[in-house]
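hey so u asked for the seq, here:
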Amino acid sequence: MSTEATARTTAWTLRPAVTADIEPIAELRAAVMRADLERLGRYDEHRVRQRLRDAFSTRYTSVVMADGELAGCVTFRPADGRWWLEHFYLAPRHQGRGLGSAVLGTLLERADAEGTAVALNVLQGSPARRLYERHGFVLEAEDPVDVFMVRPPAALPHTAAMPASRPCDAE
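ran it, structure tokens below
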């Protein structure tokens, strides 16, 4: 993936996740999701970490590195003819500085180049929903806990095509 820089965030990279990342990412998930899960009456100190451990796969997960440290993670996996954005967590000190938009934008460019939709779910009332809406995600379905969103692929800039050749008329 690419390295990005914005006026509000330092340079960042995505690196492939490795098995040793499971516990730091489980801790990050617990910290990031705690307020929303508590608000929904669903926070469980053990379960919040175990759900990540049970679903963690290095195959499609990347670690967001910024300022020389693990700043977050994201899973971007193909399923059901679309990309699924999952486990997108940024450490609180890296939130609100444009890093989430930069990482998300990079992933969406990839999906757009393939002409593939991207789907995700976010907790009801989560401020992350605004980020996704700014990037073109719309409501697909919801339940009392989750909001399911989808973003169709953006139209790629159309380049003028050469007209198809036509046979010459015999005169």
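The longest helix spans residues 22-39. Helices lie at 22-39, 47-55, 99-114, 128-134.
lmk if thats what u needed
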